[in-house]
Amino acid sequence: MKAIVITRGGAPEALQIREIEPPPLLPGHARVTLRAAGLNHRDLWQRIGYPGPEPMILGSDGAGTVEAVGADDDRAWVGQEVVINPSLYWGDREDAPGPNYQVLGNPTFGTYAESVTVPVENVAPKPAHLDFVQAAAFPLAGLTAWRALFGQGALQPGQTVLLPGIGSGVAGFALAFAKIAGARAIVTSSSQDKLEKAKAQGADFAADYTDDRWEQQVRDYAAPAGIDLVIDHSGEKTLPAGVRLVRPGGRVVFLGVTTGERLELGLRETYFKQVHLVGTMMGSPREFLALCRFIELHRYTPQVNHVYPMEEVAAAHALMEAGGQYGKIVLTI
Ligand SMILES: NC(=O)c1ccc[n+]([C@@H]2O[C@H](COP(=O)([O-])OP(=O)(O)OC[C@H]3O[C@@H](n4cnc5c(N)ncnc54)[C@H](OP(=O)(O)O)[C@@H]3O)[C@@H](O)[C@H]2O)c1
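That is the input. Now the predicted structure with NAP docked in place:
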């Protein structure tokens, strides 16, 4: 199969198209002919840090058609249009993944290829109203936002969620899902343009976090009920403000360390307010199915900003690296 491979870490040009033998199709697995592959920031970090020299196929998000399965029991999947859940080997528990947990796209061959082989539990019927490009845009970031909001975050209709750094893919999905679920959403960004786009998408209040007054503006807007949930994806520079802003007994769900991973946190304030500080990581197969049903029921369409043919993967990576997108970048295969 034709695939975009990487054999050493480096600049976007380190990604090259090659013929690669697909992995063997074992029982319990499905091989999916891919039509589109979505990009995530994870792909950039994998590319930059890849030690080589073995060829690796990056990519966690993909959509296509099941071409073959490894066991007769699963043959009903053959020919079905599917979307791939990149959370591999999650295990049976809902509260946390098991010891074999992996994210698709290193060490397992990923979706920047003509086909991908995944466990059958990692394919789900493609929401019928989405085309392959739209379907390949939501799995990783959408699943992360879903679990953060409704699983770890326990968000209820009528409650208020704060989403700092709305330019992030995960935050963008969280905004869309929170609004569909009937919650009030407050966003922050360093970009006026992104603040305007978020308001057009339904954000109830938008603040510029480069303005020293942003925290007070958010507090004033949320009063008197306050903020029930904060979803923090950037870590060191944002999480302490989330703890200060959340209401007593509220939740701060955190999932990333874009601005660093060392924290100075007022512990007395945190326990006195009885804040729930909860980590989260993508989601389970059950949550992925629930997300797909939610997307189909509400006819939600992910925002795709840039589509590149797979041959132009270096340009797609360069765009993401420059932070030039609002919405997802997708490769057509
Ligand atoms: N745990 C998981 O399962 C999981 C899954 C997916 C991603 N992640 C992590 O989540 C993080 C976000 O990933 P992503 O791909 O969604 O987005 P991303 O593109 O990495 O997010 C970048 C955004 O972070 C915001 N940001 C940067 N500094 C900030 C600050 N000081 N205050 C507030 N916002 C700030 C900026 O928002 P503005 O442009 O609006 O200013 C920027 O656009 C990454 O660290 C990633 O590793 C974790």
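The pocket of NAP is lined by residues 40-41, 140-141, 144, 164-170, 188-191, 194, 209, 233-234, 237-238, 255-259, 280-282, 323 (CB under 6 Å).
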